[in-house]
Amino acid sequence: MPVPVLPEKIAQLAPHCVTEYRAAFETGQPVLERYGIADSRRRVVHFLTQILHETGGLALRFENLRYSPARLPAVWPSRFRPLGPLDPEEYAYQPEKLANAVYGGRMGNVAQGDGFLYRGRGMLQLTGKGSYARATTILQLRSPAAPDLTDVPDAVCSAEWCLHVAAAEWAARGCNCAADRDDIEEVTRCINGGIIGLPERIAWSAKVRPLFLPG
């Protein structure tokens, strides 16, 4: 029997949840079932853990790129001084300029402005035109009416498609199997290729688990 992910539990976990995400969960149970997430409590726990971390408690639709001069070298050490060529003072608190500098020319971003246009969005913070194109292909296999996300990038964080995109990406990256093993480190690697933010993800898991895996 599918595990219900009720809106009231989302509200309990994410009191500052943005309107789009809240609306998605209000009608999202079929999406979670379609991608096998609702097949087990462990899968639900790990899925919610990851999206809560990626979105700061479901409070962010877009990647926060308003970094201070001190923070930029810590996030992108190879890009900013003292190790990289860029002066952090010139990019601090300038999201568009920063995104085009750090994301431009890679991750499928080729045109001027692609770095900012395809910055992190949605429940899993999809980033880079290549990722938007891949997500479109994956999404349209199950939902033929889904938009081309490279043409309509804001659909990634829209009420209609945000949960679809996150669930499709989750399943395609093998996260259900990692969740079945109850391995948060493996799930995190599936999501972002490393273990960035693992302590924070573990903290989120500690909040989610009692609601779905009591005892």
Question: What are its keywords?
Answer:
215 residues; mainly alpha; 12 helices; 0% strand
Secondary structure blueprint with pairings:
Blueprint: H1 7-13, H2 19-26, H3 29-34, H4 41-54, H5 72-75, H6 95-103, H7 114-117, H8 129-142, H9 162-172, H10 175-180, H11 184-192, H12 198-212
Helix pairs in contact: 4-12, 8-9
Radius of gyration: 17 Å
Could you spell the SSE succession in H and E letters? HHHHHHHHHHHH
Sheet having the most strands: none
Structural class: mainly alpha
End-to-end Cα distance: 20 Å
Percent helix range:
40-55%
How many strands appear in the DSSP assignment?
Answer: 0
- pLDDT < 50 stretches: none
Shape: globular
Count of helical stretches: 12
Instruction: Give the percentage of residues in beta strands.
Output: under 5%
Mean pLDDT over all positions: 97
Mind explaining what this structure looks like?
This protein is mainly alpha-helical and about 220 residues long. It is about 50% helix and about 0% strand. The protein is built from twelve helices and no strands. It has helices spanning about 5-15, 20-25, 30-35, 40-55, 70-75, 95-105, 115, 130-140, 160-170, 175-180, 185-190, 200-210. It is globular and about 55 Å long.
Quick overview of this protein structure:
The chain has 12 helices and no strands. It is an all-alpha fold and 215 residues long.
